[in-house]
Amino acid sequence: MVLDPVTTKNGEGAPLAGWHGVHRLTQAPFVTRMATAYSAGLDTPHLAVGGACGLQHYAGRFVLATIGAWVQTGHLLDLAHDRWQVRLDADGHTTGVAPPVVGSRAVADPEDAAHAVVSEHLGPIVAATRAAARITERVAHGCIAASCSGAFAALHRRTPPERQGELTRIARSFMAAPAWRATRPLVDLLEVELPAGVALVHERHVCCLIRLGRDHGACGTCPDIDPLERRRRTTTHAAAAPRGTDLHLGVTHVA
């Protein structure tokens, strides 16, 4: 679905699909186009659904690259919006990100890393999304928290067993940082025993709203499904995901 073009000197009439500078995601008019396309693709009239899901979709791609590099090297990539590119499809889905090839800074503490990721980079994107789609900060941060938790879970699956506990502690410190501005938990991070070994999974406390789309049910980590069914879904997914031991853990947990 491609929105009717509206020609402006800021390029708002350009096709949604393709590569864009991430600074566009800090502009409410552009985010409105994204959210409208995303909601239309889900067959829902609610713009909040497209806003929340579009934000989570971008955050998932962004944090896997950013947290992945940080966990392995102890350095955060340059997070300036004009240094990143995002690839969108016609429905407003993020299909790829291109990080900068140079520029990084050492960050040892998970709370400092969380501030950089959540406040510095994603903060202006959250503000634009909230202005465009009228979602609450808790919904926005809940979507981002799920993306970050998913990234840590993917990294955990590649961590040698003897260091998985250390990665879990890093993840929990990151997710408990003041940058989330949350008085109540956004997600629970859990270690579960599986035949292949320990897995890190998460359960949400905030719905991403996708179930408001026609023919879309709740996601497997949704807070609004039966707790036993949620646990079954999260562990089934973790058991099926590929595992390895190739990840170098370059960040040491700071108590």
How much helical structure, as a percent, in the residues? 40-55%
Structural class of the helices, strands and pairings? alpha+beta
In round numbers, the mean pLDDT is 88
Q: Which stretches of 5+ consecutive residues score pLDDT under 50?
A: 1-11
Instruction: Sketch the major β-sheet.
Output: 3 strands, antiparallel
Beta content: 5-15%
Q: What strand line-up does the widest sheet have? A: 1-3-4
Radius of gyration: 18 Å
Q: What are the secondary-structure elements, in order, as H or E? A: EHHEEEEHHHEEH
Distance between the termini: 49 Å
> Would you report the number of β strands?
7
Q: If helices are DSSP runs of H or I spanning 4 or more residues, what is the number of helices? A: 6
Q: Give the overall form.
A: globular
Key features of this structure:
single chain, 255 residues, alpha+beta, three-stranded antiparallel beta sheet, two-stranded antiparallel ribbon, 6 helices, 7 strands, 45% helix, disordered N terminus
Give a quick rundown of the structure:
This protein has helices at 28-41, 47-73, 110-133, 137-156, 161-175, 227-240; strands spanning 18-21, 75-77, 85-88, 94-98, 104-106, 187-194, 197-204. With 255 residues, it is of the alpha+beta class.
